[in-house]
Write a structure and sequence with these properties.
heterotetramer; A alpha/beta (289); B alpha/beta (300); C alpha+beta (341); D alpha+beta (430); A: 289 residues; alpha/beta; Elongation Factor Tu (Ef-tu), domain 3; Rossmann fold; 2 domains; seven-stranded mixed sheet; 8 helices; D: 430 residues; alpha+beta; Cytochrome-c3 Hydrogenase, chain B; four-stranded mixed sheet; four-stranded antiparallel sheet; 13 helices; globular; binds flavin-adenine dinucleotide; binds iron/sulfur cluster
C-alpha cells in the first residue's frame, strides 16, 4: 500500500510531515554566527499564496540532517517569500550555514498561534527585543509598519550586547528615522566608542516611553532568558495588564504539530498553543518558563 | 551542495579483544560501501596498505591503553586527527581489564602473571580508557559495538555532522522487544543502568544484561543497588557486576556508591569527555549524594 | 448499536474466517505475560490474557519506523507495513487508550502514518475480569460504547457481540451463520450479572475527579524528589503506557551518503535529553521535573483539557516499573496515603 | 648484500599486535624473535573472586575471533568444576555454534587474509578488481559463519546466549532449517578456496619437521571437542594434564607466554588436526583432503592454509547433520543448575587456530583460580623456528627480495591471534 508515494514534494502535501521545496534566494551574515535567509517556494503559485501570521514558525528540513523550528522574520504583508534569521548552534543550523544561495531546502509550516493580531488592532504597541529575540518580533514590527494606520502608538526598544551584535542594525537605523513610531536602540557596551545611541541595558530605555495608554497596550518581549524578568517588571510598572504582555517561548520540537510531545507544558503544546503566550499564561501555568 | 572530498579515516586498535574492528570486518554486505564512502588510510587488521603519518579526518580507536608505547601512538593519532572516536567499552571505559581500577593491586597482579621478567617490547601500565589521556570526541560503547550505531556515527561524521548516540538505558529497547522484565523476576539485570543501543540482546534471549555497554548517561546506580540488595544480592556481587564492563567510568562516577577508593591514574590529568551530556556532573551529585532512605524526612 | 450472540465453541471458526479480511493478531503468552502476535493458528490465542506487555499502540505508531526515504532533497513517503489487519482481544482500557491516541493523532494535523494504519485495522474487543492491578473503573474506562468494530462480551457459554461500526457489520457477515440475532431477557440478566461481577472485582478504586487540584497543590511537594531518587529513568513506563505518544525523529543516512531514511522512534519524557535544546539548556534537567511531567500528563493536563485522565487504568506501569513507581502509587502518595515506593 | 636486521614492526592482517625481528651478525643469522607488543590485560586476575557465570562472560572477551571457542572451553571447564551434566540438545547447539566460528574464522583467514599474499595484493579489497568472484565467495561463506554465531550465541561476537548449563533461548525449527539449506548451498563457494590454494605452489624455504597436537574427538568421526589430546609422537594425554603439554614460560620480548612440549616447539591448528585426524574426514571434505594431502604437510606450515580451506568445507557439511538432529527435539531444555559450588575443571576445545585450554577452580561459588592456555601462545615458538629456518635459507640462497613479506607470510599462515596469546596465564587467588 504505497499509494501517495510520489507526491510532488514542491506542492503542499496531505502529509503534514512532508517538507515543501524552497529555494534560498538571499542569504547574508547578520553577525558572526547569525545568518539571514530569504527563501521562496520552488512552486511560484505556492509562493504567492503563502500566508502566515507574525509570531508563527516553520520547520526547516534538510535531508539527511533533520528538522528544526525557526520563527518567521518576514511579514505576510510583503508576500512571496519567507525570511529567517538563524543562529548556528548545532547539527541542523551548522549544515544549513553550508547552503548557498539557490540551493533547495525543505520547509513546512506555518505553525503555532502567532500574535493575536485581531485583538491587537487599534491598540498601542510596545515591542521590546534583545539579541536573537528579533527573529519573531521583526515580523510583527514590519507588519505593523505596513499597516500603520490600524494600530495606535508604537514603541520599539531594541538592545544588544555590542553594536556589532545588533541584528538588522541598518534596518533599525532606518526605522529609527521614521516618525510614525518611537524606536530606541541600546547596547550594553561599545568597544568601538562609535555608538551614537544609548548605552546600557534595555530596561534603561523605559523612561523614554511617554504616551502609552497602558490599559490599551499590547507589550511584547523576546530575547535572552535573563531579560524577561526585568522587562516584565517594567511592563507591570507601566500598568500593562498581564494578559496583554506577550512573549514567545522556546522548547524542543520534533514535529511542530503537536504530535511528538517534546514541547508539552502541562496541558498545552508550545507548538500548537504557543509559541506566543501572555504573561498571565506564564503565571497560571506552572512550568512555562 | 558542494562536493565534499572523501574523508580520510583510520582504524586503530590498542589493548582489547579486537572485537570492535572485527565487528566492522564482519559487515560483509556493507564493507565495500564503507570503503567507497570514506578513504580508509589505515586498517592494519584488514590490510597491509597503511599510511601512518598523515592527517586524518576521523580516527576510530579501539582498546584501552596498557603500555607506554600505546600511549605515544595514541597521542600521535590524536595529533593527526580532526575527530577521534573511541569505539568499544575498552576504549570508552577501560574494558574488563580496568575492572579493578582503583583497587591499587595492579603491580601485584602483574607480577603474579609475568613474574620478574623485564619486558623489552613494552613498558606495561594499568588499563585506562582513552579519554584519560587525550580528548575524545565521541564514545561509541559496546562490547563489542553494534554495527548500526557504528554506521550511523560513520555517516554522520563523514558528512561533518555531530553524532547523537542512544541516551536510553537497555530497558527502553527491552520493552520495545516486549521482553518479560528479568529484574522483576528476581534476576540481577543491569539493564536500567546500562547504555542502550544493543537492541537489548541479552533480555531478548531471556538472559539478564551484564552491562557490557557500560553506564548510561543518567544511570541511577544508587537506586539499582538498593533494589538489588532488596532482592538479596550481596553487595560484593552487585559491585563486581557493575565494574566488570563499566570499568573506569563506573569506578570513577560511582566510586562512593560502590564503596571504592579512587586513585587518580598515574600522572596524567583527566580530560573531560567532549560529548558528556550537559551538566552531567550535577545529576551525578544528585544521584550519588544520599540514599533515598537517608533522604526522606530531610528538608530540601 | 446492534448486538448478536456467538457460541463459545464457534469462536475459533469465526477467528479463522476473519483471516479473509487481513492478518489476524491477538494476545499469546510470553513467559508469564502476554504479547500481541500474529495468529497463524487461531487456537494459540490466549483468551485469558489480561494486559499485554506493549499496548496496541505498537500497531499504529510502531516503536521504530521510517517516515520518508530521501535522496538529495526529495522525500518519498514510506508506508511499508500498512496492511489490513484484525486485532482481536482488546480490552476496554486499551480501546479507550486508542481513542485517546485518536484525539492526538487524528484531530489537528492528522498524522497519515497513524491514520493509514488505523484505517486498515479492524478492532475487536473482548471483555475481561480485572486483576489487582487494573484500575480502569477509577478512570471510567472499564466499559466501551465505541471505538471498536466488534466487541465480544463473555456471557456464560456464549459471547454477546456488539457491532460498533459498519466495518464490524461486514466482519460479522464473513461468517453470518455462526451468529444468533435473538437476544432475550435472560441474556440481559446474564449481562447485568456479569457487569456486577466485573465491577465488584476492582481492587484499585480511586476518585480521580479532584486530581488536577491535588496535582496543582502538590507542585512543590517533596514527593517528586523522593520518587526521583528511586526512579531509574529507564523510560519503560512510557514505552508500555497505551497513551504515551512521544517520539523522536532522526535522519539515518545510507552508507552511500546520498540517500537515507527519516526515522521515527518512541521517546519518553523520562529520557534525560527529552527537553534539551541547542546550546545545552535543558528545561527538565532534574529527574523530578520529568516525573512530574509524566504524571501531570496522566492525571492533570488531560483532565483539564478533555475532562478525563489520560490514564486508562490498564495497570501496565504497575506491572512494569522495577522500582514500583506507577500511577497507583503516585495517586496514593499525592493523596497522602502510605505507599510502597 | 648488507642486511643487518629485518624488523617487521606490525604484522598486518593478523589479530592483535605483533612484529618480527631477525638480526644478523657478520652475514650470519644471530637472533629471531616474534615480538608481541600487545598490552597486558591480566584478565585471569580479574576473574578471581567472581561468580562462574561472570567469568564466562569475561574470558570470552579475551579474543573476538575465538570468542566462541573461549566460551565453549570456559563452559565445559566450569561445568566440570560444578558437576553439571548437560542435555544432548545443548551439546548439539554448542557444536553448531562452534561450526559457525570455524566457518567464519577459517573463511576470513583463507580468503581475505592469506590469499592476498599468494596473489600479491595488500588486502582483499585490493583483490576485488581482478578476483571479485573469489572475494565474494569468501565473503558469503564468512557471512554465513557470522550469522550462525549470531543465531546460536545472540551476537556475532561475545554473544551471551550460551550459558553454564544450557542456552538462554533456542532458535526455532524454521530458522534452523533455513541455515541448513544455506550451508548446503555454500559448499561450492568454500570449495573454491580449496581449489585456488591447491593449484598454487607453496613456498618451501621454511620447511622443517614439527610436532603436532590436537584434541581426540570423543567419537570416531572428525571433530573439535574431547578430553584427550593426541600428539604426533604417538603419545596421548588427558586434557586436564595440559600443563605437562604446554609448559608455559615468560620471555622478555613478548607479552604472550611461550609453550614447549618436551622442550621442543610444537604446532597446533588445522594442519595439526589434519595430520593427526585427516583420515577421519568424511564427505566432500574427505575427498579434498585425500586429493591434496602430501608429505610436505608434516614439514610445511603453509599447508595450514589449505587445511583451513578444507576444514571450512567440512564445517559447512556438518551444519545440516547437526540441524537434522536438533530439529528432532520438541522441547527446549531448562538451564541446568550446578550440583555443587566448589570444584576444579579443565577443558579443551579446538579453536580455529589450535587447541585451547581453560581451567578453573571454584570455592564457595567463586572462582579462585583461572588458567587459560591459547593456541597462539603454544605455537609462537614453532613460528619463531620456522621464521629462523626461512631466514637462514633465504640468506643462503641470496634471495632477499621481498624478504619481509616472505617471513610475514609464514607468520600469517599460522593464523595467529595475538590478543588471545597475551592474556592468559595462571594465577592463584589474591
Ligand atoms: C518556536 C521556535 C522558534 C525558534 N526560532 C528561532 C529562530 O528564529 N532563529 C534561531 O536561530 N533559532 C530559533 N529557534 C531555536 C532553534 O530551533 C534551534 O536553535 C535549533 O533547533 C537548533 O537545531 P540544531 O540541529 O542546529 O541543534 P542541535 O543541538 O544539534 O539540535 C538537535 C535537534 O534538537 C531539537 N532542538 C534543539 N534545540 C531546539 C530548540 N531550541 N527548539 C526546538 N528544538 C530544538 C531539534 O529537533 C534539533 O534538530 C526557535 C525555536 C523554537 C521552538
Ligand atoms: S529485563 Fe532488564 S533490561 Fe529489560 S526491562 Fe527488565 S531490568 Fe530493564
Ligand atoms: S543487554 Fe546488556 S549485556 Fe547484553 S548486549 Fe546489551 S548491554 Fe550488553
Ligand atoms: S499510566 Fe499506567 S495504568 Fe495508566 S494507562 Fe498508562 S500504563 Fe496504564
Amino acid at each position: 500500500m504505497t499509494d501517495n508515494s510520489q507526491i510532488a514534494a514542491s506542492a503542499p502535501s496531505a502529509n503534514p510531515f512532508m517538507p515543501e521545496q524552497m529555494r534560498i534566494v538571499r542569504r547574508s551574515d547578520l553577525t558572526s554566527d547569525v545568518r539571514f535567509f530569504q527563501v521562496r517556494p520552488v512552486d511560484m503559485e505556492r509562493a504567492l499564496s503563502l500566508d502566515y501570521k507574525p509570531g508563527q514558525f516553520m520547520m526547516v528540513s534538510l535531508a539527511g540532517v533533520g528538522e528544526a523550528p525557526f520563527s518567521i522574520s518576514s511579514t505576510p504583508s510583503r508576500p512571496g517569500m519567507l525570511e529567517f534569521c538563524i543562529r548556528k548552534v548545532g547539527r541542523l543550523t551548522g549544515e544549513l550555514f553550508k547552503y548557498k544561495e539557490n540551493s533547495i531546502i525543505g520547509v513546512r509550516g506555518p505553525y503555532g498561534n502567532g500574535f493575536p493580531l485581531e485583538k491587537m488592532i487599534g491598540k498601542d504597541i510596545l515591542i521590546v527585543v534583545g539579541g536573537l529575540g528579533v527573529a519573531p518580533l521583526r515580523s510583527l514590527l514590519l507588519y505593523i509598519l505596513d499597516n500603520r494606520d490600524k494600530f495606535g502608538k508604537f514603541y520599539v526598544l531594541h538592545g544588544a550586547r555590542t553594536p556589532a551584535e545588533m541584528l538588522f542594525r541598518k534596518e533599525f537605523f532606518e526605522i529609527k528615522e521614521r516618525d510614525d513610531l518611537e524606536c530606541f536602540l541600546t547596547v550594553d557596551n561599545d568597544p568601538t566608542s562609535q555608538w551614537p545611541f544609548n548605552k546600557g541595558v534595555v530596561t534603561d530605555l523605559f523612561p523614554k516611553i511617554k504616551e502609552l495608554d497602558p490599559g490599551n497596550t499590547f507589550a511584547t518581549i523576546c530575547g535572552p532568558p535573563v531579560m524577561y524578568k526585568f522587562v516584565v517588571a517594567e511592563f507591570l510598572k507601566l500598568g500593562i495588564p498581564k494578559h496583554q504582555i506577550l512573549m514567545t517561548l522556546e522548547r524542543r520540537m520534533h514535529c511542530g504539530i503537536g504530535k511528538c510531545g517534546h514541547c508539552a507544558i502541562g496541558s498545552i503544546y508550545t507548538c500548537l498553543d504557543g509559541p506566543v503566550f501572555s504573561y498571565w499564561d506564564v503565571l497560571h501555568m506552572k512550568d512555562l518558563i | 551542495m558542494a562536493e565534499i572530498p572523501k574523508p580520510k579515516v583510520g582504524f586503530y586498535g590498542f589493548t582489547g579483544c579486537a572485537g570492535d574492528l572485527l565487528t566492522i570486518l564482519h559487515c560483509e554486505d556493507e564493507l565495500l560501501d564503507i570503503f567507497n564512502a570514506v578513504d580508509i588510510r589505515s586498517f592494519l587488521m584488514a590490510s597491509s596498505d597503511v599510511h601512518d603519518d598523515e592527517e586524518l579526518d576521523i580516527a576510530f580507536v579501539e582498546g584501552s591503553i596498557t603500555t607506554d608505547h600505546q600511549l605515544e601512538s595514541l597521542k600521535g593519532i590524536r595529533k593527526r586527527s580532526k575527530v577521534l572516536v573511541a569505539i568499544g567499552s575498552c576504549a570508552c571505559f577501560g574494558g574488563p581489564q580496568a575492572a579493578r581500577l582503583g583497587c591499587g593491586d595492579w603491580e601485584k597482579r602483574f607480577k603474579k602473571v609475568y613474574g620478574e621478567v623485564k619486558h623489552t617490547v613494552a613498558e606495561p601500565r594499568e588499563s585506562h580508557p582513552l579519554d584519560e589521556y587525550v580528548k575524545v570526541d565521541y564514545c561509541i560503547p559496546g562490547c563489542p559495538i553494534d554495527k548500526h550505531q557504528f554506521f550511523f556515527a560513520l555517516t554522520r561524521l563523514a558528512k561533518g555532522m555531530p553524532v547523537e548516540l542512544t541516551t536510553f538505558p537497555v530497558c527502553a529497547e527491552c520493552k520495545w522487544n516486549e521482553n518479560e522484565c528479568l529484574l522483576l523476576k528476581g534476576e540481577l539485570c543491569l539493564g536500567p543502568v546500562t547504555a542502550g543501543g544493543c537492541n537489548s540482546r541479552c533480555p531478548n534471549h531471556n538472559l539478564p544484561c551484564v552491562g557490557c555497554w557500560g553506564p548510561t548517561s543518567e544511570a541511577n546506580v544508587a537506586s539499582e543497588i538498593n533494589l538489588l540488595k532488596e532482592r538479596n544480592f550481596s553487595a560484593e556481587e552487585i559491585v563486581n557486576k557493575l565494574r566488570l564492563f563499566g570499568g573506569a567510568a563506573m569506578v570513577r562516577r560511582f566510586a562512593d556508591l560502590l564503596g571504592i577508593k579512587t586513585e587518580e591514574p598515574a600522572g596524567k590529568p583527566r580530560q573531560k569527555k567532549a560529548r558528556k551530556p550537559v551538566a552531567a556532573g550535577k545529576a551525578k551529585k544528585k544521584t550519588a549524594s544520599k540514599s533515598p532512605k537517608a533522604k526522606s524526612g530531610k528538608k530540601r | 448499536m446492534k448486538a448478536l450472540k456467538l457460541k463459545k465453541e464457534d469462536l475459533y471458526a469465526y477467528l479463522e474466517s476473519l483471516k479473509s479480511y487481513g492478518e489476524l493478531w491477538g494476545p499469546v503468552p510470553r513467559g508469564e505475560r502476554y504479547v500481541y502476535a500474529r495468529l497463524t493458528n487461531v487456537r494459540e490465542v490466549a483468551l485469558q490474557a489480561l494486559r499485554t506487555i506493549l499496548p496496541p499502540k505498537k500497531f499504529f505508531v510502531p516503536p521504530r519506523f521510517n517516515m520518508f526515504r530521501y535522496s538529495e532533497d526529495r522525500y518519498t513517503e514510506v508506508f511499508d507495513d500498512v496492511k489490513p489487519r484484525v486485532l482481536f482481544g482488546l480490552h476496554p482500557c486499551d480501546i479507550h487508550g486508542l481513542m485517546i491516541l485518536d484525539e492526538l493523532f487524528l484531530e489537528r494535523f492528522p498524522d497519515p502514518y497513524y491514520r493509514k494504519r488505523r484505517e486498515a485495522t479492524a478492532i475487536i474487543g473482548l471483555s475481561c475480569i480485572p486483576d489487582d492491578k487494573c484500575m480502569a473503573r477509577s478512570t471510567n474506562t472499564h466499559a466501551v460504547e465505541g471505538g471498536f468494530d466488534l466487541a465480544f462480551n463473555e456471557l456464560g457459554d456464549e459471547y454477546l457481540v456488539w457491532v460498533g461500526s459498519s466495518l464490524g457489520d461486514d466482519l460479522v457477515r464473513l461468517n453470518l451463520d455462526l451468529f444468533n440475532e435473538e437476544i432475550d431477557a435472560q441474556d440481559l440478566q446474564k449481562y447485568l450479572e456479569w457487569r456486577r461481577k466485573r465491577d465488584s472485582r476492582y481492587k484499585l478504586n480511586f476518585d480521580l475527579t479532584g486530581m488536577p487540584d491535588i496535582m496543582e497543590l502538590s507542585w512543590d511537594s517533596d514527593l517528586w524528589q523522593e520518587l526521583a531518587d528511586k526512579c531509574l529513568a529507564c523510560g519503560a513506563c512510557s514505552m508500555v503506557c497505551p497513551t504515551c505518544n512521544c517520539y523522536n525523529i532522526r535522519d539515518v543516512s545510507d552508507l552511500s551518503l546520498e540517500s537515507g531514511v527519516r526515522e521515527r522512534h518512541w521517546d519518553s519524557c523520562m529520557n534525560k535529553e527529552y527537553a534539551l535544546v541547542a546550546g545545552g539548556h535543558n528545561f527538565r534537567e532534574a529527574r523530578a521535573e520529568r516525573l512530574k511531567l509524566y504524571y501531570t500528563h496522566k492525571l492533570k493536563a488531560f483532565i483539564t483539557e478533555y475532562g478525563k485522565p489520560s490514564c486508562v487504568g490498564c495497570g501496565r506501569c504497575i506491572d512494569t516499573c522495577p522500582v514500583n513507581i506507577n500511577v497507583a502509587e503516585v495517586i496514593r502518595a499525592l493523596k497522602g496515603q502510605e505507599v510502597k515506593v | 648484500m648488507s642486511l643487518n636486521r629485518i624488523k617487521i614492526e606490525s604484522l598486518a592482517r593478523v589479530e592483535g599486535h605483533g612484529g618480527i625481528t631477525v638480526e644478523f651478525k657478520g652475514g650470519k643469522l644471530s637472533n629471531v624473535t616474534v615480538d608481541i607488543h600487545e598490552g597486558p590485560r591480566l584478565l585471569e586476575t580479574i576473574a578471581v573472586g567472581r561468580i562462574p557465570s561472570e567469568v564466562v562472560s569475561l574470558t570470552c572477551r579475551i579474543c573476538a575471533i575465538c570468542t566462541i571457542s573461549h566460551r565453549y572451553a570456559a563452559l565445559r571447564a566450569m561445568e566440570k568444576a560444578l558437576e553439571i551434566e548437560i542435555p544432548p540438545k545443548v551439546h548439539l547447539m554448542r557444536e553448531l555454534m562452534h561450526c559457525g566460528e570455524m566457518i567464519e574464522s577459517n573463511a576470513l583467514h583463507v580468503f581475505l587474509l592469506a590469499l592476498p599474499d599468494y596473489l600479491g595484493y595488500p588486502s582483499a579489497v585490493h583483490m576485488v578488481p581482478d578476483h571479485a568472484e573469489d572475494v565474494q565467495a569468501g565473503l558469503r561463506v564468512k557471512k554465513f559463519g557470522v550469522k550462525l554465531m549470531e543465531l546460536t550465541s545472540a551476537r556475532p561476537i561475545h554473544g551471551e546466549n550460551p550459558v553454564i548449563g544450557g542456552f538462554g533461548k533456542y532458535p526455532s525449527k524454521a530458522e534452523l532449517l533455513r541455515f541448513k539449506y544455506e550451508a548446503e548451498s555454500l559448499i561450492p563457494d568454500a570449495e573454491r578456496g580449496v581449489e585456488i590454494l591447491r593449484n598454487l605452489r607453496q613456498p618451501t624455504y621454511m620447511e622443517e619437521g614439527m610436532t603436532f597436537m590436537c584434541i581426540k574427538p570423543e567419537h570416531d568421526r572428525y571433530g573439535w571437542v574431547g578430553d584427550r589430546i593426541l600428539v604426533s609422537t604417538g603419545e596421548e594425554f588427558n586434557a586436564w594434564d595440559y600443563r605437562k603439554l604446554t609448559n608455559e614460560r615468560v620471555v622478555p620480548h613478548s607479552m604472550a607466554k611461550r609453550s614447549r612440549f618436551q622442550d621442543k616447539p610444537y604446532f597446533v591448528g588445522a594442519l595439526a588436526r589434519f595430520n593427526l585426524l585427516g583420515e577421519r574426514l568424511d564427505g566432500a571434505a574427505g575427498e579434498h583432503f585425500r586429493r591434496c594431502y602430501n608429505l610436505s604437510w608434516i614439514r610445511n606450515p603453509m599447508y595450514n592454509n589449505v587445511a583451513q580451506a578444507i576444514e571450512t568445507v567440512w564445517a559447512l557439511e556438518e551444519v545440516p547433520r547437526i540441524v537434522d538432529k536438533l530439529v528432532a527435539y520438541e522441547e527446549d531444555p531448562e538451564i541446568v543448575a550446578p550440583s555443587r559450588d566448589r570444584g576444579a575443571g579443565s577443558a579443551a576445545v579446538e579453536a580455529p587456530r589450535g587447541t585451547l585450554y581453560h581451567h578453573y577452580e571454584v570455592a564457595d561459588g567463586k572462582v579462585i583460580r583461572a588458567d587459560i592456555v591459547t593456541p597462539t601462545a603454544q605455537f609462537l615458538d614453532m613460528m619463531e623456528q620456522h621464521i629462523r629456518v626461512a631466514a637462514e635459507n633465504l640468506l643462503k640462497e641470496g634471495d632477499t627480495e621481498d624478504v619481509e613479506l616472505k617471513l610475514e607470510m609464514i607468520a600469517r599462515a599460522y593464523d595467529p591471534c595475538i590478543s588471545c596469546a597475551t592474556h592468559l596465564v595462571k594465577v592463584r587467588g589474591i
